[in-house]
Amino acid sequence: MDARLNYFAAETAGKALKHVMTAGKALKEAPLPAELQELVALRVSQINGCAVCIDMHTKEAAAAGESAVRLHLVAAWREATVFTEAERVALELAEQGTRVADAAGGVDDELWARATEHFDQEQLTALVFMVSFMNMVNRLNIITQQPAGDYQVGQFH
Fold it and tell me: Which residues form the Carboxymuconolactone decarboxylase-like domain (predicted)?
């Protein structure tokens, strides 16, 4: 399968992607554990059906030390016993923040209150930006049908 657009060959994409990559790097440096960032990125990508991002974040999570069992259970995290309460809150925030049309209002007050029990303001900011960033990147990839499977760990860092 070939992508509809080659972002690396288009001048406009090159200009915009420079800033997108800078934003992604800033998020990687945020005060959230790398494993949690990858779990959130993976869950958002699963919801949106972004194969290339699922490929990337599964491999990055494994490289960051995430177990295969936990990676396989992200899609069914509610029923899984392998996630901490903080991880469960982050995954739920990722879902509510991604399914804004379905959730009729986005992240609810009850979830936000639970999130403040596990994350400080800087971490919450990083989490909100991570969810938003992943939704944007998912859409860039889905619209242009970017193929999945060839990602190498660290390829865009």
Answer: 19-95
Cβ-based neighbours of 138, under 8 Å, separated by 6 or more: 44, 45, 48, 50, 53
Give the pLDDT of the chain (157 residues) as one tens digit per residue: 788 988 888 899 889 989 999 999 999 999 999 999 999 999 999 999 999 999 999 999 999 899 999 999 999 999 999 999 999 999 999 999 999 988 678 899 999 999 999 999 999 999 999 999 999 999 999 999 998 988 888 777 6
How many domains does the chain divide into? 1
112, 92 Cβ separation under 8 angstroms: no
pTM over 0.90: yes
How far apart CA 157 and CA 143 sit, in angstroms, is 23
How far is the CA of 48 from the CAs of 12, 42, 70, in angstroms? 25, 10, 20
CATH code: domain of residue 58: 1.20.1290.10
Q: Which domain holds residue 63?
A: 11-143
